[in-house]
Design goal:
By secondary structure, the chain is an all-beta fold. 0% of the residues lie in helices and 56% in strands. The chain contains no helices and eleven strands. Strands 2, 4, 5, 6, 9, 10 and 11 form a seven-stranded mixed beta sheet that branches. Strands 1-3-8-7 form a four-stranded antiparallel beta sheet, with no helix packed on it.
C-alpha cells in the first residue's frame, strides 16, 4: 500500500501564492506520472498539472503561467507552486501518483492524496 500526504493548503487573498506538497511513502519501486487535480464545489474533478518521470509537464489552460509543478524523485514528492491566485482557484486539491510496487510488476497503480483545501478570498 502507498500513502500520499498532502500539505500546504490554506486561505489566501487574490493575487497571493501558495505551495502544495505531496509526499508518497510505502510500497514503492518507482513512480511514473505525478499530478495535481482539483475539485470545486459542484464541479467535476479536473487535472491541474502533471509531470512525467522525465520531468515533462502539462498544465490546464486556466493555470498556465501561474502554477508550476515539480517533483523530487529521490524524495518521492511532488509540489505545486501556485502564484497569482484567483477566486476560481478555490477548490480541494488532490495529488495523484502512479506507483509501480516492485521490480516484477510492470503496471502502475493510481493513488490519491487526502485532499487539501485551497481557498482564495478577499
Amino acid at each position: 500500500q502507498v500513502q500520499l500526504v498532502e500539505s500546504g493548503g490554506g486561505l489566501v487573498q487574490p493575487g497571493g501564492s501558495l505551495r502544495l506538497s505531496c509526499a508518497a511513502s510505502g510500497r514503492i519501486f518507482s513512480i511514473n506520472t505525478m499530478a495535481w487535480y482539483r475539485q470545486a464545489p459542484g464541479k467535476q474533478r479536473e487535472l491541474v498539472a502533471s509531470i512525467s518521470s522525465g520531468g515533462s509537464t502539462n498544465y490546464a489552460d486556466s493555470v498556465k503561467g501561474r502554477f508550476t509543478i515539480s517533483r523530487d524523485n529521490a524524495k518521492n514528492t511532488v509540489s505545486l507552486q501556485m502564484n497569482s491566485l484567483e477566486a476560481e482557484d478555490t477548490a480541494v486539491y488532490y495529488c495523484n501518483v502512479k506507483v509501480r510496487h516492485d521490480s516484477s510488476s510492470y503496471y502502475y497503480t493510481n493513488y490519491w492524496g487526502q485532499g487539501t483545501q485551497v481557498t482564495v478570498s478577499s
